[in-house]
Amino acid sequence: MREFPDDDACLEYLWRSRYSEDGKHADCPKCGREGVEFKQYATKQRRQTWTCTQCGHHVQPTAGTIFHGSSTSLHLWFYAVYLMTSTKCGLAAKHLERELGVTYKTAWRMLNKIRNELMEQGDDVKLSGEVEVDETYVGGKQRFQFGRPGRTSKKTPVLAMTERGGKVVAKVIPDASAKSLLPEIERHVEPGTQVYTDEWRGYASLHKLYPHRTVRHAHHEYVRGPVFTSTVEGFFGNVKNGIAGNYHGVSRRWLQGYLNEYAWRLNHRHDPRADFETLLLKAADR
Question: For strand 194-197 and strand 130-138, is the pairing parallel, antiparallel, or unpaired?
Answer without folding.
Answer: parallel
